[in-house]
Design goal:
The complex is a heterotrimer. Chain A is of the alpha+beta class. Chain A is 36% helix and 27% strand. Chain A is built from 12 helices and 14 strands. Chain A has a 5-stranded antiparallel sheet with strand order 4-5-10-6-7. In chain A, strand 2, helix 2 and strand 3 form a beta-alpha-beta unit. The longest helix of chain A has 21 residues. Chain A is globular and about 60 Å long. Chain B is α+β, with helices and mostly antiparallel strands. Chain B has 3 domains: 176 residues, 2-Layer Sandwich (Aldehyde Oxidoreductase, domain 4), CATH 3.30.365.10; 166 residues, Aldehyde Oxidoreductase, domain 3 (Alpha-Beta Complex); 328 residues, 2-Layer Sandwich (Aldehyde Oxidoreductase, domain 4). Chain B is 28% helix and 24% strand. Chain B has 20 helices and 31 strands. A 7-stranded mixed sheet of chain B has the order 3-5-1-13-10-11-12, sandwiched between helices. Chain B is globular, with a radius of gyration of 28 Å. The termini of chain B are far apart. In chain B, 61% of the residues are buried. Chain C is of the alpha+beta class. Chain C folds into 2 domains: 77 residues, Ubiquitin-like (UB roll) (Roll), CATH 3.10.20.30; 80 residues, [2Fe-2S]-binding domain (DNA polymerase, domain 1, Orthogonal Bundle). In chain C, 39% of the residues lie in helices and 15% in strands. In chain C, strands 2-1-5-3-4 form a 5-stranded mixed sheet. The chains are: A alpha+beta, B alpha+beta, C alpha+beta. At the B-C interface, helix 18 of B face helix 2, helix 3, helix 4, helix 5 and helix 6 of C.
Chain lengths: 286, 804, 171
């Protein structure tokens, strides 16, 4: 299982990386942490003509507050996210999520930019980005742009990023007062791809839910916003009746494909169970 | 055989024999001595096969069939040959001139049949992953690059993937064989029909077992180095049975047996996976002969999933007949198992099913038994013996239906077993399938287990927690285990597989002991065990002993490692050789000291006065005299400081051990997830030489069994395509889901050897799946739900509960 | 196209190494084949088993998922180097005493994870230890003894020898 040959460029700046992408065309790929890309190369599932290594590009490893958002550079590793006080305080849903990502050694090398750009349907961060209405930051030959998470994840390993664009960061809005968040996923073993997972953000006014965002992972080709379930929760106090209504509404929201671990009926059942446990957890929290 | 005269010293609490202590005592049997000889493995300084560097080495990759069953219409290697770094590209026909084919059958499995298999397939591929050509290059990556340039045209044929369909035989894989039945066996005891007809209770259940595989951490590895000047070959091979491979390379490559040298380096786990003959490994050796240079093959992980032997694909219907008081009258078994398209050579793929027939019902004292076995070919990967061969199936069937019977009769499962386990004083005992038990300790083990786990306490707690909606289950699994096999296992069938082993022990001039043994090491601690036995037998400290295994040019001829035979058989050879060496040492000492041999002994590296313990001379001094100053010894005296002894078990076909396991689980009824809270095992493997090593073998074996019960499955689709050939999709047990495992021992030494040691390597794997299954079903019982198909995935549990 | 090669300067076990290497060569193949450091092993080559683990700039990483070229300008420490400088001594002694290894193939990777635990999670209990080593595959031991060994080092218990080495080797 040795990787096929490819050209290799160490980019010194975002502009240089973009220039290389433009020059080399569609089969050039960005190398960030490499935790997904290298596995695909070793398995010969991918045969890029060139890898553009952006590890040496300055300015992509910061976590900083910018106004009412927290901006995270694309090359920030999972381990850095886990250790960041800023993330723990201001984007707690993301902090809750990181321990679920793979294993220790992967978290030391893998990056949030790499994960968002790959858009694996079972990945955690895309669902968190959708739940929190994050903005994905791209740069390319036509300039810089920002794409809302809802619009960014288009399908199975497909995003709004053009082949000549680079994902340089992501901005998460700082949580408003009254927000409660919860992340959980069900996987066969610690660190495995999720059978189904849920990134939930509920806004409370006193005991009443004023807004709800429920983003499922591993339940479709991209993160699925469970709009009917969300609607069933808004205006309620997350009592048992509301939870049941939301769980029933989930049937209309989710149409998951089956995989080796679970067929669609099982995934839907597990999604309902996750929802119930998540909301029960959140109505306790303050 | 004489009764053992070595009293086992069982160290209950002493986990570690510290360096300072070893000088004070030289009796190591029963002590948890750390494996100092393995320290290098903790520094990354072992030498596994892929660590070897050899000049002019070629690396081979194989062109593997993407189809489960297909005829090769055309195969063009011309373009591949021209790629950078390519040394050769070879097809099956060309290689057949260097390696003769084989058929995996043995005489004692009556009627077993299989088709001829070549080192590289010619004309037809019969499973996805079967090799149809070989590419040898200067580096592995160049060889893999060249694969893209191989042109193959396939005529895809229908694939037989369902066991029942295979048995029905509409599609016959090897037309010349007439049907797809590799092996069929039936047996029935006299009185069976009557017993089942008149029983108060007859229960029936079907159990399904998914095929799974070993997933050794180090993949299969072989480096063959042919010397054309000598017509000899050295094969570095991660194999458990180097002498067996020596014989096979010799016969199939046409090289005299004594010109074949098989060397085992450090092996990164085997568990039976590395005891079989693999076509691609034979091809590697043949390529070395053809190309007249060394060639290496290391299976990568995808190749491992596609071509390492799989095992344990069974669907088995079992019936139990009982009286209303709970006495088991008999078992009835119908077992169907699907192997690959060939029976694996030389041990055959019929043995696993044969063991299921032999062992079902094992611990119990019923008299009636009927069994029907069909072993059928399929177009999936080949299968063969994998740790605990057949036992996990037999134990799961038996212990599963026993629990069903207990439930039906409203008896506690522990009490039901107590009532039916063969009594500890009922031996020797002949079992309905024909097995003979020397002496087992089922009841002692059951008592010890129930006490260790506080069975009554756990039952009370279970009831309390059920009120709170927490559902725990307790599962028991009693078992017997085949160890220390005689030639009854393979030799009688015509296989050139040795059931005896030898040890050559030598006192070196500086006073150290060197031991060469024909049993091999794959990490279980064989070499440590032999170190302890040799040190004890001769009278030296463990630090004075060096053990060498795994080199057919150096070590005695023997069987190697399989069927939990290393400690019991190899250990006995080491013991006898050590005792004989000690006797020879004392002969020399008597000559040097002009004293009666009977007044002397060897203790703590010294020749001493037997009665007083007074030091007479260090062994290093005796060595000096014997080797360098024999002129000072009496005229007719010849020193003999190298002794070889061999040992083979004779009295019993197999030396059985027994044990009992328990699992405590908590089932999440909403998700179907099973949390393993704790696991216990009380086992009796006879004399325990190193309790720490035995505990680790048991624990590792249990976790392997848990893998089969909850996680592991080689998933094939209908067309014979493997769906989960990576470690992301094939789920092996990792630490976070595994419980702590408490191990207890009972010791019933075998009287067939002086050492009294039986085997311990496979018992954990034999009993764990049954214990897990019974625990899950115990948790689900209040809901009338039950699972009987391994692995017991969350989806299966949810379906059983009617939630999905 | 012919194989792409790239100049890479990396410090391995304290020694500076400068080579022109195939861009596609992963770090473990570079260590094993070019530098003869065979202590890191290949079990899967897709980042799941952990047998390949090494340290890059003091962090445990999967060597099979790291291009050797990516270590340009960085520091790599392998099990051999960390054995020679004593960093692993206490853990190695504990592994020996608890028989926390059998075939040894997973051990180099497992020891590096264990070192990370000792350095960063000194209060970890058994469940946390199991969680932290959950990315290292062991087929032989069943993990129980490995947890015992790591727990022993964390609690500072064990033989006097282990204690002395632990104190002497820490930096």
């Amino acid at each position: 299982m040795k990787a096929p040959n490819f050209d290799y460029v160490r980019a010194g700046s975002v502009q240089q990386a973009i220039d290389e992408l433009v020059a080399r065309g569609d089969s050039a790929q960005i190398l960030a942490g490499g935790q997904s890309l290298m596995a695909m190369l070793n398995l010969r599932l991918s045969t890029p003509s060139c890898l553009i290594d952006i590890a040496g590009v300055p300015g992509l490893r910061e976590i900083e507050q910018v106004g009412k958002t927290v901006r995270i550079g694309a090359m920030v590793t999972h381990a850095q996210l886990q250790q960041s006080a800023l993330i723990a305080d201001q984007v707690p849903l993301l902090a809750q999520t990181v321990p679920h990502v793979a294993h220790l050694a992967i978290r030391n090398s893998g990056t949030i930019g790499g994960s968002l750009a790959l858009a694996d349907p079972a990945a955690e961060y895309p669902a968190v980005a959708v739940a929190l209405q994050a903005n994905i930051l791209l740069q390319g030959p036509r300039g810089a742009r920002s794409v809302a998470a809802d619009a960014f994840f288009e399908g199975f390993y497909r995003t709004a990023r053009q082949p000549d664009e680079i994902l340089v960061g992501v901005e998460f809005p700082i949580a408003p007062a009254g927000r409660r968040v919860h992340f959980d996923e069900l996987s066969r073993r610690r660190g495995d791809y999720a059978m189904v997972g849920l990134a939930a953000a509920l806004d409370f006014d006193g005991a009443r839910i004023t807004a709800a965002r429920l983003a499922y992972l591993a339940a479709g080709e991209r993160p699925v916003l469970a709009r009917q379930a969300m609607a069933a929760l808004v205006g309620t106090s997350a009592d048992d009746k509301a939870i049941q209504a939301a769980q029933q509404a989930l049937d209309a929201d989710l149409d998951p494909p089956g995989d080796l671990q679970a067929d669609p009926a099982t995934k839907k059942h597990l999604a309902r169970v996750l929802l119930g446990r998540c909301i029960q957890q959140l109505r306790q929290a303050t | 055989m004489n009764a053992p005269n070595l009293t086992p010293v069982v160290a209950e609490d002493n986990r570690v024999a510290k360096p300072a202590d070893t000088a004070a005592t030289t009796r190591y049997i029963g002590q948890s001595v750390p494996r100092s000889g393995a320290r290098k493995l903790l520094q990354g300084r072992g030498a596994y096969l892929d660590d070897i560097r050899v000049p002019r080495l070629g690396h081979v990759v194989f062109v593997r069939s993407p189809h489960a069953h297909a005829r090769i219409v055309s195969l063009n290697l011309d373009a591949a040959r021209k790629q950078p770094g390519i040394i050769a590209a070879v097809d099956g026909r060309a290689l057949a001139e260097y390696c003769t084919p084989w058929i995996g059958v043995l005489g004692h499995l009556k009627g077993i049949k299989s088709a001829e298999q070549h080192a590289i397939a010619i004309d037809r591929a019969c499973w996805q992953g079967e090799a149809v050509a070989a590419i040898v290059a200067e580096t592995r990556r160049q060889a893999e690059d060249a694969l893209d340039h191989v042109q193959v045209e396939w005529d895809v044929l229908p694939a037989v993937t369902d066991m029942r369909a295979s048995l029905a035989g509409e599609q016959v894989i090897h037309p010349q064989l007439g049907d797809n039945i590799c092996f069929h066996r039936e047996l029935v005891t006299e009185g069976f029909d009557e017993a089942f007809a008149s029983a108060d209770l007859v229960l029936e259940k079907t159990y399904d077992f998914a095929r799974h595989t070993g997933v050794t951490n180090e993949p299969r590895a072989i480096l063959a180095d042919y010397n054309p000047a000598e017509h000899s070959i050295t094969v570095y091979h991660a194999t458990q049975a180097p002498n067996m491979m020596q014989d096979i390379f010799s016969r199939h490559l046409g090289i005299p047996e004594s010109s074949v040298r098989v060397v085992c380096k450090d092996v990164g786990g085997s568990f039976g996976i590395k005891v079989h003959v693999y076509a691609d490994e034979m091809a590697t050796a043949a390529l070395s002969v053809m190309l007249r240079r060394p060639v290496k093959f290391i299976a990568d992980r995808m190749e491992s999933f596609l071509t390492d032997i799989h095992a344990r694909e069974h669907t088995a219907k079992v019936r139990i007949a009982c009286t209303k008081d709970g006495d088991i009258l008999g078992f009835d078994l119908d077992d169907l198992t699907g192997i690959g398209p060939y029976s694996v050579y030389p041990r055959t793929s019929g043995i696993e099913g044969n063991q299921v027939v032999n062992l079902t019902g094992g611990p119990y004292k019923h008299k009636q038994y009927r069994a029907n076995l069909d072993v059928v070919f399929t177009n999936k990967n080949v299968t063969c013996q994998y740790r605990a061969v057949g036992h996990p199936i037999a134990v799961a069937l038996t212990e599963g239906i026993v629990d069903e019977a207990a439930r039906a009769l409203k008896m506690d499962p522990a009490e039901f077993r107590r009532r039916n386990l063969i009594a500890d004083d009922a031996y020797p005992y002949t079992f309905p399938s024909g097995l003979k038990f020397e002496k087992l300790s089922h009841h002692q083990c059951l008592d010890k287990l129930l006490a260790a786990m506080d069975y009554d306490g756990l039952r009370a707690e279970q009831a309390q927690l059920r009120e709170k909606g927490i559902h725990r289950g307790i599962g028991l699994a009693a078992m017997i285990e085949v160890t220390n096999p005689s030639p009854a296992f393979y030799g009688v069938g015509g296989a050139r597989i040795s059931a005896q082993d030898g040890a050559t022990i030598r006192l070196d001039p500086a006073g150290m002991i060197n031991v060469l043994v024909s049993v091999t090491e794959q990490g279980q601690g064989t070499e440590a065990v032999f170190t302890q036995i040799a040190a004890t037998a001769v009278g030296v400290g463990v630090d004075k002993v060096r053990v060498v295994t795994g080199d057919t040019a150096i070590t005695p001829y023997g069987g190697g490692t399989w069927a939990s035979r290393g400690a019991g058989i190899g250990g006995e050879a080491v013991l006898q050789a050590g005792k004989a060496l000690k006797s020879n040492i004392l002969d020399i000492a008597a000559a040097i000291l002009s004293q009666d041999k009977a007044t002397l002994d060897v203790r703590n590296d010294q020749v001493v006065d037997r009665a007083t313990g007074e030091h007479k001379m260090p062994l290093s001094e005796l060595g000096r005299v014997a080797y360098f100053r024999p002129d000072t010894l009496p005229m007719n005296f010849q020193s003999e400081l190298t002794v070889t002894r061999h040992y083979t078990p004779r009295e019993y076909g197999f030396t059985f051990t027994n044990g009992i396991q328990a699992s405590l689980v908590e089932v999440d009824l909403d998700t179907g997830f099973v949390k393993l809270l704790k696991h216990w095992c009380v086992e009796d493997c006879g004399t325990v030489i190193n309790p720490m090593l035995v505990d680790e073998q048991i624990r590792g074996g249990i976790v392997q069994g848990i893998g089969a019960a909850l996680f592991e499955e080689c998933v094939y689709d209908e067309s014979g395509q493997l769906q989960n050939g990576t470690m992301a999709d094939y789920l092996v047990p990792m630490s976070a889901e595994m419980p702590d495992i408490e191990v207890g021992h009972v010791e019933t030494p075998t009287r067939t050897s002086e050492l009294g040691a039986k085997g311990a390597g496979e018992a954990g794997t034999a009993g764990a799946p049954a214990a897990i299954m019974n625990a899950i079903n115990d948790a689900l019982a209040p809901f009338g739900a039950n699972v009987a198909a391994q692995p017991f995935t969350p989806q299966r549990i949810l379906r059983a509960l009617g939630k999905v | 196209m012919s194989e792409t090669r790239i100049k890479t300067c990396v410090t391995v076990n304290g020694q500076s190494v400068e080579r022109e290497i195939p861009a596609r060569q992963h770090l473990v193949d570079f260590l094993r084949e070019d530098l003869g450091l065979t202590g890191s092993h290949l079990g899967c080559e897709h980042g799941v088993c952990g047998a390949c683990q090494v340290m890059v700039d003091g962090q445990v990483v999967r060597g099979c998922l790291t291009l050797a070229a990516q270590t340009d300008g960085r520091r790599v420490d392998t099990v051999e180097g960390l054995s020679d400088n004593g960093e692993l001594a206490a853990l190695q002694q504990a592994f020996l005493e608890h028989n926390a290894f059998q075939c040894g193939y997973c051990s180099s990777g497992m020891l590096l994870t264990a070192l990370h635990i000792v350095r960063n999670h000194p209060q970890a209990d058994r469940d946390e230890i199991r969680d932290l080593i959950s990315g290292n595959y062991c087929r032989c031991t069943g993990y129980h003894a490995i947890v015992d060994a790591i727990e022993t080092v964390l609690r500072g218990a064990g033989s006097a020898l282990a204690q002395a080495k632990h104190n002497g080797g820490s930096r």
